[in-house]
Design goal:
The protein is α+β, with helices and mostly antiparallel strands. The chain has two domains: about 160 residues, Beta Barrel (OB fold (Dihydrolipoamide Acetyltransferase, E2P)); about 325 residues, Bira Bifunctional Protein, Domain 2 (BirA Bifunctional Protein, domain 2), CATH 3.30.930.10. Helix content is about 40%, strand content about 20%. The chain contains 15 helices and 18 strands. The strands form four sheets. The chain has an eight-stranded mixed beta sheet with strand order 6-10-11-18-17-16-15-14, with helices on both faces. A five-stranded mixed β-barrel has the order 1-2-3-5-4.
Length: about 525
Protein backbone atom coordinates (compact mmCIF):
# COMPACT_ATOMS: atom_id res chain seq x y z
CA UNK A 1 0.00 0.00 0.00
CA UNK A 2 1.48 3.36 -1.01
CA UNK A 3 2.01 6.19 1.43
CA UNK A 4 -0.39 8.47 -0.41
CA UNK A 5 -3.20 5.95 -0.18
CA UNK A 6 -2.46 5.42 3.51
CA UNK A 7 -2.69 9.16 4.12
CA UNK A 8 -5.93 9.34 2.17
CA UNK A 9 -7.43 6.51 4.19
CA UNK A 10 -6.32 8.08 7.47
CA UNK A 11 -7.86 11.35 6.34
CA UNK A 12 -11.09 9.58 5.43
CA UNK A 13 -11.12 7.82 8.80
CA UNK A 14 -10.68 11.13 10.63
CA UNK A 15 -13.38 12.70 8.52
CA UNK A 16 -15.66 9.77 9.29
CA UNK A 17 -14.95 10.07 13.03
CA UNK A 18 -15.53 13.82 12.86
CA UNK A 19 -18.73 13.25 10.92
CA UNK A 20 -19.95 10.71 13.48
CA UNK A 21 -19.12 13.15 16.29
CA UNK A 22 -20.93 15.99 14.51
CA UNK A 23 -23.89 13.72 13.84
CA UNK A 24 -24.04 12.84 17.50
CA UNK A 25 -24.01 16.55 18.43
CA UNK A 26 -26.67 17.28 15.80
CA UNK A 27 -28.87 14.44 17.05
CA UNK A 28 -28.47 15.59 20.64
CA UNK A 29 -29.30 19.16 19.61
CA UNK A 30 -32.29 17.98 17.57
CA UNK A 31 -33.46 15.85 20.45
CA UNK A 32 -33.22 18.79 22.84
CA UNK A 33 -35.00 21.04 20.35
CA UNK A 34 -37.72 18.45 19.79
CA UNK A 35 -38.11 18.04 23.53
CA UNK A 36 -38.47 21.80 24.00
CA UNK A 37 -40.92 21.96 21.08
CA UNK A 38 -42.93 19.06 22.47
CA UNK A 39 -43.06 20.73 25.87
CA UNK A 40 -44.26 24.00 24.33
CA UNK A 41 -46.77 22.10 22.23
CA UNK A 42 -48.07 20.25 25.28
CA UNK A 43 -48.47 23.55 27.13
CA UNK A 44 -50.36 25.07 24.20
CA UNK A 45 -52.59 22.01 23.99
CA UNK A 46 -53.37 22.29 27.72
CA UNK A 47 -54.28 25.97 27.33
CA UNK A 48 -56.54 25.23 24.37
CA UNK A 49 -58.22 22.35 26.20
CA UNK A 50 -58.82 24.56 29.25
CA UNK A 51 -60.55 27.04 26.93
CA UNK A 52 -62.71 24.18 25.64
CA UNK A 53 -63.72 23.36 29.21
CA UNK A 54 -64.71 27.01 29.68
CA UNK A 55 -66.83 26.75 26.54
CA UNK A 56 -68.48 23.58 27.85
CA UNK A 57 -69.39 25.31 31.12
CA UNK A 58 -70.85 28.33 29.34
CA UNK A 59 -73.18 26.24 27.19
CA UNK A 60 -72.90 24.22 23.98
CA UNK A 61 -69.23 23.93 23.05
CA UNK A 62 -70.09 22.39 19.68
CA UNK A 63 -73.19 24.22 18.41
CA UNK A 64 -75.04 22.97 15.35
CA UNK A 65 -77.91 24.33 13.22
CA UNK A 66 -75.69 27.17 12.02
CA UNK A 67 -76.96 29.10 9.02
CA UNK A 68 -74.30 30.47 6.66
CA UNK A 69 -75.66 32.81 4.00
CA UNK A 70 -72.48 33.81 2.19
CA UNK A 71 -69.00 32.71 1.15
CA UNK A 72 -65.86 34.85 1.30
CA UNK A 73 -65.26 34.59 -2.46
CA UNK A 74 -68.86 35.60 -3.20
CA UNK A 75 -68.55 38.72 -1.02
CA UNK A 76 -65.18 39.70 -2.49
CA UNK A 77 -66.40 39.18 -6.06
CA UNK A 78 -69.57 41.22 -5.52
CA UNK A 79 -68.28 44.05 -3.35
CA UNK A 80 -64.52 44.05 -3.83
CA UNK A 81 -64.63 47.08 -6.13
CA UNK A 82 -66.63 49.30 -3.77
CA UNK A 83 -64.30 51.75 -2.04
CA UNK A 84 -66.72 53.57 0.26
CA UNK A 85 -67.29 52.09 3.72
CA UNK A 86 -70.54 54.06 3.98
CA UNK A 87 -71.81 52.46 0.77
CA UNK A 88 -70.62 48.99 1.89
CA UNK A 89 -72.50 49.31 5.17
CA UNK A 90 -75.75 49.76 3.25
CA UNK A 91 -75.43 46.40 1.51
CA UNK A 92 -76.99 44.48 4.37
CA UNK A 93 -75.91 41.83 6.83
CA UNK A 94 -73.69 38.91 5.90
CA UNK A 95 -72.92 35.66 7.71
CA UNK A 96 -69.76 33.61 7.25
CA UNK A 97 -68.11 30.59 8.82
CA UNK A 98 -64.59 29.26 8.51
CA UNK A 99 -61.29 28.52 10.20
CA UNK A 100 -59.32 31.29 11.91
CA UNK A 101 -55.98 31.70 10.16
CA UNK A 102 -54.75 34.97 11.70
CA UNK A 103 -55.37 37.02 14.88
CA UNK A 104 -54.10 40.47 15.78
CA UNK A 105 -55.59 41.49 19.11
CA UNK A 106 -55.73 44.95 20.75
CA UNK A 107 -57.44 43.90 23.98
CA UNK A 108 -60.96 45.19 23.40
CA UNK A 109 -60.80 44.65 19.65
CA UNK A 110 -59.06 42.38 17.16
CA UNK A 111 -58.62 41.64 13.50
CA UNK A 112 -59.18 38.03 12.52
CA UNK A 113 -58.79 36.33 9.18
CA UNK A 114 -60.90 33.30 8.46
CA UNK A 115 -60.83 30.95 5.49
CA UNK A 116 -63.90 29.15 4.25
CA UNK A 117 -64.16 26.71 1.34
CA UNK A 118 -63.67 29.51 -1.17
CA UNK A 119 -61.32 32.21 0.08
CA UNK A 120 -59.94 34.12 3.07
CA UNK A 121 -61.49 37.35 4.40
CA UNK A 122 -60.75 39.73 7.27
CA UNK A 123 -63.04 40.22 10.28
CA UNK A 124 -63.11 43.06 12.78
CA UNK A 125 -64.33 42.16 16.25
CA UNK A 126 -64.79 44.80 18.95
CA UNK A 127 -66.28 44.82 22.44
CA UNK A 128 -68.71 47.60 21.51
CA UNK A 129 -70.26 45.52 18.68
CA UNK A 130 -70.68 42.20 20.55
CA UNK A 131 -72.73 41.01 23.49
CA UNK A 132 -70.76 40.44 26.74
CA UNK A 133 -71.01 36.66 26.24
CA UNK A 134 -69.77 36.88 22.65
CA UNK A 135 -66.93 39.19 23.66
CA UNK A 136 -65.75 36.60 26.21
CA UNK A 137 -65.90 33.94 23.49
CA UNK A 138 -63.92 36.08 21.08
CA UNK A 139 -61.16 36.58 23.70
CA UNK A 140 -60.78 32.80 23.97
CA UNK A 141 -60.55 32.19 20.22
CA UNK A 142 -57.33 30.72 18.84
CA UNK A 143 -55.82 30.27 15.40
CA UNK A 144 -57.32 27.11 13.95
CA UNK A 145 -60.75 27.46 15.60
CA UNK A 146 -63.86 27.09 13.48
CA UNK A 147 -65.99 30.22 13.97
CA UNK A 148 -69.19 31.84 12.72
CA UNK A 149 -69.79 35.57 12.36
CA UNK A 150 -72.54 37.87 11.22
CA UNK A 151 -72.08 41.54 10.46
CA UNK A 152 -71.70 44.34 7.92
CA UNK A 153 -68.99 45.21 5.40
CA UNK A 154 -66.58 48.13 5.58
CA UNK A 155 -63.05 49.07 4.55
CA UNK A 156 -60.19 49.51 6.99
CA UNK A 157 -57.86 52.51 6.95
CA UNK A 158 -55.51 50.46 4.77
CA UNK A 159 -58.33 49.80 2.31
CA UNK A 160 -58.92 46.11 3.04
CA UNK A 161 -62.46 44.81 2.59
CA UNK A 162 -63.54 43.47 6.00
CA UNK A 163 -66.59 42.28 7.88
CA UNK A 164 -67.47 44.02 11.14
CA UNK A 165 -68.81 41.26 13.39
CA UNK A 166 -72.01 41.93 15.31
CA UNK A 167 -72.50 38.30 16.26
CA UNK A 168 -69.83 35.69 16.96
CA UNK A 169 -69.68 31.97 17.84
CA UNK A 170 -66.95 29.40 18.22
CA UNK A 171 -68.22 26.31 16.40
CA UNK A 172 -65.37 23.88 17.08
CA UNK A 173 -62.24 24.39 19.16
CA UNK A 174 -58.91 23.50 17.54
CA UNK A 175 -57.04 21.63 20.28
CA UNK A 176 -53.70 21.55 18.45
CA UNK A 177 -51.51 24.42 17.31
CA UNK A 178 -51.77 24.57 13.52
CA UNK A 179 -48.61 24.93 11.43
CA UNK A 180 -47.52 28.41 10.40
CA UNK A 181 -49.41 29.70 7.38
CA UNK A 182 -46.32 30.42 5.28
CA UNK A 183 -44.54 27.15 6.01
CA UNK A 184 -47.34 24.61 6.44
CA UNK A 185 -46.34 21.12 7.50
CA UNK A 186 -42.59 21.02 6.96
CA UNK A 187 -42.38 17.23 7.31
CA UNK A 188 -43.43 15.80 3.96
CA UNK A 189 -44.78 12.58 5.49
CA UNK A 190 -46.96 14.58 7.89
CA UNK A 191 -48.52 16.29 4.88
CA UNK A 192 -49.69 12.94 3.53
CA UNK A 193 -50.62 11.38 6.88
CA UNK A 194 -52.52 14.45 8.10
CA UNK A 195 -54.00 15.77 4.88
CA UNK A 196 -56.59 17.66 6.95
CA UNK A 197 -53.81 19.77 8.44
CA UNK A 198 -52.03 20.12 5.11
CA UNK A 199 -55.18 21.43 3.42
CA UNK A 200 -55.91 23.97 6.14
CA UNK A 201 -52.41 25.46 5.94
CA UNK A 202 -51.23 24.89 2.36
CA UNK A 203 -52.71 26.96 -0.46
CA UNK A 204 -50.85 24.89 -3.06
CA UNK A 205 -52.40 21.62 -1.86
CA UNK A 206 -55.88 23.10 -2.01
CA UNK A 207 -55.16 24.40 -5.51
CA UNK A 208 -53.95 20.99 -6.74
CA UNK A 209 -56.98 19.15 -5.42
CA UNK A 210 -59.34 21.73 -6.83
CA UNK A 211 -57.63 21.24 -10.20
CA UNK A 212 -58.01 17.48 -9.81
CA UNK A 213 -61.75 17.93 -9.41
CA UNK A 214 -61.87 20.16 -12.48
CA UNK A 215 -59.92 17.57 -14.50
CA UNK A 216 -62.28 14.73 -13.53
CA UNK A 217 -65.33 16.86 -14.29
CA UNK A 218 -63.79 17.92 -17.59
CA UNK A 219 -63.25 14.28 -18.55
CA UNK A 220 -66.87 13.42 -17.75
CA UNK A 221 -68.13 16.33 -19.81
CA UNK A 222 -65.88 15.38 -22.73
CA UNK A 223 -67.21 11.84 -22.99
CA UNK A 224 -70.85 12.65 -22.29
CA UNK A 225 -70.73 15.21 -25.11
CA UNK A 226 -69.53 12.41 -27.41
CA UNK A 227 -72.55 10.24 -26.50
CA UNK A 228 -70.71 7.92 -24.10
CA UNK A 229 -72.55 6.39 -21.13
CA UNK A 230 -70.87 6.39 -17.72
CA UNK A 231 -71.12 2.96 -16.05
CA UNK A 232 -69.94 1.13 -12.94
CA UNK A 233 -68.59 -2.41 -12.97
CA UNK A 234 -67.59 -4.81 -10.15
CA UNK A 235 -64.69 -4.10 -7.83
CA UNK A 236 -64.41 -7.72 -6.70
CA UNK A 237 -63.52 -10.20 -9.43
CA UNK A 238 -63.46 -13.99 -9.36
CA UNK A 239 -60.49 -13.94 -11.77
CA UNK A 240 -57.46 -11.74 -12.44
CA UNK A 241 -57.92 -10.01 -15.79
CA UNK A 242 -57.65 -6.80 -17.74
CA UNK A 243 -54.02 -5.84 -17.03
CA UNK A 244 -50.61 -7.31 -16.30
CA UNK A 245 -50.55 -6.79 -12.54
CA UNK A 246 -50.50 -8.60 -9.20
CA UNK A 247 -53.86 -8.51 -7.40
CA UNK A 248 -55.03 -8.12 -3.82
CA UNK A 249 -56.78 -11.25 -2.53
CA UNK A 250 -59.96 -11.26 -0.47
CA UNK A 251 -62.66 -13.75 0.53
CA UNK A 252 -66.45 -13.66 0.64
CA UNK A 253 -67.61 -15.58 3.70
CA UNK A 254 -71.21 -16.35 2.77
CA UNK A 255 -70.31 -17.73 -0.66
CA UNK A 256 -67.05 -19.18 0.69
CA UNK A 257 -65.43 -17.73 -2.40
CA UNK A 258 -61.97 -16.29 -3.02
CA UNK A 259 -62.05 -12.98 -4.88
CA UNK A 260 -59.61 -10.39 -6.17
CA UNK A 261 -59.83 -6.62 -5.98
CA UNK A 262 -59.90 -5.64 -9.61
CA UNK A 263 -56.70 -4.71 -11.39
CA UNK A 264 -58.78 -3.31 -14.30
CA UNK A 265 -62.46 -3.18 -15.36
CA UNK A 266 -61.71 -4.00 -19.00
CA UNK A 267 -63.45 -7.33 -19.52
CA UNK A 268 -66.66 -6.18 -17.85
CA UNK A 269 -66.77 -3.00 -19.93
CA UNK A 270 -66.32 -5.01 -23.12
CA UNK A 271 -69.15 -7.32 -22.05
CA UNK A 272 -71.31 -4.17 -22.09
CA UNK A 273 -70.18 -3.42 -25.65
CA UNK A 274 -71.22 -6.95 -26.62
CA UNK A 275 -74.60 -6.16 -25.07
CA UNK A 276 -75.07 -3.16 -27.36
CA UNK A 277 -73.71 -0.28 -25.24
CA UNK A 278 -71.42 0.90 -27.99
CA UNK A 279 -69.79 3.81 -26.10
CA UNK A 280 -69.06 3.36 -22.40
CA UNK A 281 -66.64 4.84 -19.91
CA UNK A 282 -65.87 4.30 -16.24
CA UNK A 283 -64.00 6.52 -13.78
CA UNK A 284 -63.17 4.40 -10.77
CA UNK A 285 -60.59 2.66 -8.62
CA UNK A 286 -58.17 -0.10 -9.54
CA UNK A 287 -56.05 -2.05 -7.03
CA UNK A 288 -52.64 -3.55 -7.74
CA UNK A 289 -50.59 -5.33 -5.12
CA UNK A 290 -47.30 -3.83 -6.20
CA UNK A 291 -44.66 -1.35 -5.10
CA UNK A 292 -45.23 2.04 -3.55
CA UNK A 293 -43.23 5.01 -4.80
CA UNK A 294 -43.56 8.68 -5.65
CA UNK A 295 -45.11 7.46 -8.93
CA UNK A 296 -47.14 4.45 -7.80
CA UNK A 297 -49.95 3.92 -5.30
CA UNK A 298 -51.57 0.47 -4.91
CA UNK A 299 -55.04 2.06 -5.06
CA UNK A 300 -55.47 4.46 -7.96
CA UNK A 301 -58.11 6.04 -10.18
CA UNK A 302 -58.45 4.97 -13.79
CA UNK A 303 -60.50 6.15 -16.74
CA UNK A 304 -61.37 3.35 -19.16
CA UNK A 305 -63.50 3.90 -22.23
CA UNK A 306 -64.59 1.71 -25.15
CA UNK A 307 -65.89 2.86 -28.51
CA UNK A 308 -67.40 0.55 -31.11
CA UNK A 309 -66.42 1.14 -34.75
CA UNK A 310 -63.37 3.18 -33.75
CA UNK A 311 -59.69 2.32 -34.19
CA UNK A 312 -56.70 2.89 -31.97
CA UNK A 313 -55.66 5.71 -34.33
CA UNK A 314 -58.99 7.40 -33.53
CA UNK A 315 -58.26 7.05 -29.82
CA UNK A 316 -54.82 8.61 -30.19
CA UNK A 317 -56.50 11.62 -31.83
CA UNK A 318 -59.10 11.73 -29.02
CA UNK A 319 -56.38 11.53 -26.37
CA UNK A 320 -54.54 14.49 -27.86
CA UNK A 321 -57.80 16.41 -28.01
CA UNK A 322 -58.81 15.52 -24.44
CA UNK A 323 -55.48 16.28 -22.74
CA UNK A 324 -54.91 19.51 -24.67
CA UNK A 325 -58.44 20.74 -23.91
CA UNK A 326 -57.96 20.01 -20.19
CA UNK A 327 -54.60 21.79 -20.18
CA UNK A 328 -56.06 24.84 -21.92
CA UNK A 329 -58.98 24.95 -19.47
CA UNK A 330 -56.59 24.89 -16.51
CA UNK A 331 -53.66 26.95 -17.80
CA UNK A 332 -54.85 28.77 -20.91
CA UNK A 333 -52.21 27.10 -23.10
CA UNK A 334 -50.29 23.91 -23.87
CA UNK A 335 -47.00 24.48 -22.00
CA UNK A 336 -46.22 22.66 -18.76
CA UNK A 337 -43.29 21.76 -16.51
CA UNK A 338 -43.08 18.22 -15.11
CA UNK A 339 -40.16 16.56 -13.29
CA UNK A 340 -38.15 19.67 -14.07
CA UNK A 341 -38.71 19.26 -17.83
CA UNK A 342 -40.44 21.72 -20.15
CA UNK A 343 -43.31 19.98 -21.91
CA UNK A 344 -45.41 21.31 -24.78
CA UNK A 345 -48.61 19.47 -25.64
CA UNK A 346 -49.00 21.21 -29.00
CA UNK A 347 -50.05 18.87 -31.79
CA UNK A 348 -49.04 16.65 -33.49
CA UNK A 349 -47.58 14.29 -30.89
CA UNK A 350 -44.78 11.93 -31.97
CA UNK A 351 -45.75 8.36 -32.94
CA UNK A 352 -43.05 5.68 -33.06
CA UNK A 353 -43.06 1.87 -33.03
CA UNK A 354 -41.52 0.07 -30.08
CA UNK A 355 -39.10 -1.69 -32.41
CA UNK A 356 -37.87 1.54 -34.01
CA UNK A 357 -37.61 3.15 -30.60
CA UNK A 358 -35.32 0.34 -29.41
CA UNK A 359 -33.27 0.44 -32.60
CA UNK A 360 -32.73 4.21 -32.50
CA UNK A 361 -32.72 5.02 -28.77
CA UNK A 362 -31.42 1.93 -26.96
CA UNK A 363 -27.85 0.88 -26.15
CA UNK A 364 -28.67 -2.62 -27.43
CA UNK A 365 -26.41 -3.28 -30.43
CA UNK A 366 -27.67 -6.71 -31.50
CA UNK A 367 -30.40 -7.62 -33.93
CA UNK A 368 -33.95 -7.07 -32.71
CA UNK A 369 -35.38 -10.59 -32.94
CA UNK A 370 -32.15 -12.32 -31.86
CA UNK A 371 -33.46 -13.93 -28.67
CA UNK A 372 -30.03 -14.93 -27.36
CA UNK A 373 -28.51 -11.49 -27.89
CA UNK A 374 -31.49 -9.78 -26.29
CA UNK A 375 -31.45 -12.20 -23.34
CA UNK A 376 -27.71 -11.71 -22.76
CA UNK A 377 -28.12 -7.93 -22.92
CA UNK A 378 -30.86 -7.92 -20.29
CA UNK A 379 -29.05 -10.36 -18.00
CA UNK A 380 -25.95 -8.14 -18.07
CA UNK A 381 -28.19 -5.36 -16.83
CA UNK A 382 -29.38 -7.60 -13.99
CA UNK A 383 -32.96 -7.84 -15.26
CA UNK A 384 -35.00 -10.75 -13.88
CA UNK A 385 -36.72 -12.41 -16.86
CA UNK A 386 -39.08 -14.51 -14.66
CA UNK A 387 -40.54 -16.68 -17.39
CA UNK A 388 -40.63 -13.88 -19.98
CA UNK A 389 -38.21 -15.27 -22.55
CA UNK A 390 -40.25 -14.67 -25.73
CA UNK A 391 -38.90 -12.22 -28.30
CA UNK A 392 -41.79 -9.80 -27.76
CA UNK A 393 -41.34 -9.73 -24.00
CA UNK A 394 -37.58 -9.22 -24.41
CA UNK A 395 -38.18 -6.31 -26.79
CA UNK A 396 -40.56 -4.76 -24.28
CA UNK A 397 -38.07 -5.11 -21.43
CA UNK A 398 -35.28 -3.43 -23.43
CA UNK A 399 -37.70 -0.63 -24.27
CA UNK A 400 -38.65 -0.18 -20.61
CA UNK A 401 -35.02 -0.28 -19.50
CA UNK A 402 -33.44 1.99 -22.11
CA UNK A 403 -36.04 4.07 -23.91
CA UNK A 404 -38.95 5.06 -21.66
CA UNK A 405 -37.08 7.69 -19.66
CA UNK A 406 -35.99 9.43 -22.87
CA UNK A 407 -39.57 10.13 -23.99
CA UNK A 408 -39.97 13.64 -22.59
CA UNK A 409 -42.41 15.26 -25.03
CA UNK A 410 -45.76 13.46 -25.49
CA UNK A 411 -45.08 10.34 -27.53
CA UNK A 412 -47.33 7.50 -28.67
CA UNK A 413 -45.42 4.21 -28.79
CA UNK A 414 -47.17 1.73 -31.09
CA UNK A 415 -46.56 -1.83 -32.30
CA UNK A 416 -46.63 -3.64 -28.95
CA UNK A 417 -45.82 -7.38 -29.21
CA UNK A 418 -48.69 -9.87 -29.04
CA UNK A 419 -47.27 -11.81 -26.12
CA UNK A 420 -47.43 -8.79 -23.76
CA UNK A 421 -50.82 -7.65 -25.10
CA UNK A 422 -53.22 -10.50 -24.32
CA UNK A 423 -56.38 -8.47 -24.99
CA UNK A 424 -55.32 -6.39 -28.02
CA UNK A 425 -56.15 -7.18 -31.63
CA UNK A 426 -53.31 -8.70 -33.64
CA UNK A 427 -52.03 -6.31 -36.28
CA UNK A 428 -52.52 -7.25 -39.91
CA UNK A 429 -48.77 -6.75 -40.41
CA UNK A 430 -45.74 -7.97 -38.45
CA UNK A 431 -42.93 -5.65 -37.37
CA UNK A 432 -39.81 -5.07 -39.47
CA UNK A 433 -38.09 -7.92 -37.63
CA UNK A 434 -41.05 -10.26 -38.09
CA UNK A 435 -42.34 -9.95 -34.52
CA UNK A 436 -46.09 -10.43 -34.12
CA UNK A 437 -47.46 -7.10 -32.89
CA UNK A 438 -50.84 -5.63 -31.99
CA UNK A 439 -52.80 -2.49 -32.87
CA UNK A 440 -51.84 -0.91 -29.57
CA UNK A 441 -50.31 2.30 -28.24
CA UNK A 442 -49.04 3.70 -24.98
CA UNK A 443 -48.65 7.42 -24.32
CA UNK A 444 -45.48 8.60 -22.56
CA UNK A 445 -44.63 12.03 -21.18
CA UNK A 446 -41.42 12.68 -19.22
CA UNK A 447 -40.76 8.93 -19.22
CA UNK A 448 -44.10 8.20 -17.55
CA UNK A 449 -46.85 6.05 -19.05
CA UNK A 450 -50.05 8.12 -19.06
CA UNK A 451 -52.39 6.10 -21.30
CA UNK A 452 -52.71 2.67 -22.90
CA UNK A 453 -55.11 1.88 -25.76
CA UNK A 454 -55.68 -0.62 -28.54
CA UNK A 455 -58.00 -2.20 -31.03
CA UNK A 456 -59.85 -4.80 -29.02
CA UNK A 457 -59.46 -8.46 -29.79
CA UNK A 458 -62.93 -9.68 -30.75
CA UNK A 459 -62.01 -13.07 -32.23
CA UNK A 460 -63.03 -15.57 -29.50
CA UNK A 461 -60.71 -18.30 -30.76
CA UNK A 462 -57.68 -15.99 -30.84
CA UNK A 463 -58.62 -14.70 -27.38
CA UNK A 464 -58.85 -18.25 -26.10
CA UNK A 465 -55.33 -18.99 -27.31
CA UNK A 466 -54.03 -15.79 -25.68
CA UNK A 467 -55.63 -16.77 -22.35
CA UNK A 468 -54.07 -20.24 -22.56
CA UNK A 469 -50.68 -18.64 -23.25
CA UNK A 470 -51.16 -16.39 -20.22
CA UNK A 471 -52.02 -19.43 -18.10
CA UNK A 472 -48.73 -21.07 -19.11
CA UNK A 473 -46.85 -17.90 -18.20
CA UNK A 474 -48.53 -17.94 -14.81
CA UNK A 475 -47.43 -21.52 -14.26
CA UNK A 476 -43.89 -20.48 -15.23
CA UNK A 477 -43.80 -17.86 -12.50
CA UNK A 478 -45.19 -14.71 -14.11
CA UNK A 479 -47.25 -13.29 -11.23
CA UNK A 480 -48.72 -10.59 -13.48
CA UNK A 481 -50.28 -12.97 -16.04
CA UNK A 482 -54.06 -13.06 -16.53
CA UNK A 483 -56.39 -15.93 -15.67
CA UNK A 484 -58.43 -17.86 -18.21
CA UNK A 485 -61.89 -16.24 -18.32
CA UNK A 486 -64.34 -18.71 -19.85
CA UNK A 487 -67.36 -16.41 -19.47
CA UNK A 488 -65.59 -13.65 -21.38
CA UNK A 489 -64.87 -16.08 -24.24
CA UNK A 490 -68.56 -16.94 -24.18
CA UNK A 491 -69.43 -13.23 -24.42
CA UNK A 492 -67.16 -12.81 -27.45
CA UNK A 493 -68.85 -15.77 -29.10
CA UNK A 494 -72.05 -13.69 -29.14
CA UNK A 495 -70.16 -11.17 -31.30
CA UNK A 496 -68.42 -7.96 -30.26
CA UNK A 497 -68.31 -5.25 -32.94
CA UNK A 498 -64.94 -3.82 -33.99
CA UNK A 499 -64.01 -1.76 -30.94
CA UNK A 500 -61.15 0.33 -29.61
CA UNK A 501 -60.54 0.92 -25.91
CA UNK A 502 -58.22 2.93 -23.72
CA UNK A 503 -57.19 3.42 -20.12
CA UNK A 504 -55.81 6.68 -18.71
CA UNK A 505 -54.38 6.85 -15.20
CA UNK A 506 -56.13 9.81 -13.60
CA UNK A 507 -53.55 10.27 -10.85
CA UNK A 508 -50.73 10.31 -13.41
CA UNK A 509 -52.70 12.70 -15.64
CA UNK A 510 -53.33 15.03 -12.69
CA UNK A 511 -49.61 14.92 -11.88
CA UNK A 512 -48.85 16.03 -15.44
CA UNK A 513 -51.45 18.81 -15.58
CA UNK A 514 -50.56 20.20 -12.14
CA UNK A 515 -46.78 19.75 -12.47
CA UNK A 516 -46.68 17.47 -9.41
CA UNK A 517 -43.64 15.19 -9.13
CA UNK A 518 -45.13 12.83 -6.54
CA UNK A 519 -48.35 10.86 -6.88
CA UNK A 520 -48.88 11.44 -3.15
CA UNK A 521 -49.36 15.14 -3.88
CA UNK A 522 -52.45 14.42 -6.01
CA UNK A 523 -54.08 11.67 -3.90
CA UNK A 524 -55.89 12.87 -0.79
CA UNK A 525 -54.91 9.90 1.36
CA UNK A 526 -52.06 7.85 -0.18
CA UNK A 527 -51.24 4.48 1.32
CA UNK A 528 -48.35 4.67 3.78
CA UNK A 529 -46.69 2.52 6.40
CA UNK A 530 -48.22 2.84 9.89
CA UNK A 531 -46.77 5.69 11.91
CA UNK A 532 -44.83 4.01 14.72
CA UNK A 533 -44.90 7.24 16.71
Amino acid sequence: MSKSKTNEQNKETKNDESSVHEDAIDKATDKATDKATDKATDEQAQIRRSKLETLRKSGNAYPHSIKVSNSAAEIIAQYGDLESSEELKTKGTFSLAGRVSFIRSFGKAAFFKIRDRSEAIQLYLAKNNLSPEEFELFKDADIGDQVWVEGILFRTKTGELSLEAHKFKILAKCLHTPPEKYHGLTNIEDRYRMRYVDLMSNDESRKIFKMRSQIVQGIRNYFIEKDFVEVETPMMHPLVSGAAARPFNTHHNTLDMDLFLRVAPELYLKRLVVGGMERVFELNRNFRNEGISVRHNPEFTMLEFYMAYATYEDLMDMTEDLVISLCEQLHGGTELKWFGKDVNLVRPWTRISMENAVKTMSAFQGEVGDVQAMTDYLKKKGIDLSGREGVGALLSMIFEEDVEEQLIQPTFVIGYPVEISPLARRSDKTSESGIDVTDRFELFVCGQEVANGFNELNDPDDQKERFLSQSKEKESGNLEANDYDEDYINALEYGMPPTAGEGIGIDRLVMLLTGSDSIRDVIYFPLMRPNKN
